[in-house]
Amino acid sequence: MTDNLSAILYKKQDLRLEQRPIPTPKDDEVLLKIHSVGICGSDVHYWADGQVADFVVKAPMVLGHESSGVVESVGKKVTHLKPGDRVAIEPGVPCRTCKFCKNGRYNLCADVVFCATPPWNGNLCRYYTHAADFCYKLPDNMTLEEGALLEPLSVGVHACRRAGVTLGSKVLVTGAGPIGLVSMMAARALGATKVIMIDLVKSRLEVAKQLGADHVVHVTKTTSKEEAAAKILDALGEQPDKVIECSGAQASIRIALEVTESAGVIALVGHGEHDINISIADAACREVEVRGVFRYVNEYPLSLAMVASGKVDVKKLITHRFKLEDTLEAYETARTGAGGAIKVVINCVKQ
Ligand code: NAD
Ligand code: ZN
Hints:
By secondary structure, the chain is an alpha/beta fold. The protein has two domains: 5-148 and 313-347, Medium-chain alcohol dehydrogenases, catalytic domain (Quinone Oxidoreductase, Chain A, domain 1); 154-292, 3-Layer(aba) Sandwich (Rossmann fold), CATH 3.40.50.720. 28% of the residues lie in helices and 26% in strands. The chain has eleven helices and 20 strands. The strands form five sheets. Strands 3, 7, 8, 11, 12, 19 and 20 form a seven-stranded mixed sheet that branches. It has a six-stranded parallel sheet with strand order 15-14-13-16-17-18, with helices on both faces. The mean pLDDT is 97. The site of nicotinamide-adenine-dinucleotide (NAD) has 28 residues, from α5, β14 and α8.
């Protein structure tokens, strides 16, 4: 056991496959043999642009944060996992002592160590150590690929919880990329009666319908917010009371403020344009709430239960599979969206 081939981003557009030493787990950690790693939009941005918002790649960094693996060995304080256990890896380990950690909102911890967010290494490699309590044992009826996809699913579950999606909710999801799709699937599982999605790209809306959206509305760059709202009302038959914004586009936020029912909630998942121009007065007078969404907090167990119980089928998101050795091709596929790519998954097991 010496092969620890790792996908390392040196700088913008400089991704190399190199050997690294196999790490030793600390007392409260496990050593994992990584199995599946999904590619997320942020990974592609780090590779293509060398940065995402204020996070800049300044030193070589192992990519990958949507991952699962098999426990190889455990630190001496670890009691709930043993070698051979298959686990999903929650990639952000917070400080556990700050105000936010103590209040149960550890996703807001300023000192979180998050895989593949500079300066922290991710786990697109063969062997990797992680805090044992951020590893979730998979039941026998779940695959390791499904385990890796609990990461994006948890974003969707958290978005729905922030928006207050529950039995009977009428939900609008703006943007039908991977995050919009998992939000739609999570909303369904949480009991929403109707889910409608909008996007600029017709093929993405086709996928949305196949994966369970009740209605889809195609918008263009020239569709006004009034026109879009009218189409949404027409399809849904009533106003949505929850909106999950997953495009990051100003135009979608404007549509959301226009169409959301009074007292409804808009959860902002998409992080796109920095300064956005919206008129808030009308929505404020109607007590529409706009809430931020950042990653997830305590959502892994719920996402796992959704998949294990068959309420959400995350496998349907996977369009492409590659080996670790073919990481560059995998990233290129995710970047271009070639072949209708939605979720590209890399298998890290030595073949
Ligand atoms: P993506 O780029 O694959 O999907 C975005 C979708 O929005 C695309 O299908 C695109 O066609 C559509 N879109 C763009 N402009 C639109 C418009 N004006 N109207 C309607 N649809 C429009 O991205 P993704 O991986 O699905 O992620 C979605 C967003 O969520 C990104 O902004 C990403 O940064 C963000 N994100 C946030 C968190 C968080 O913690 N809040 C976590 C993961 C991703
Ligand atoms: Zn903290």
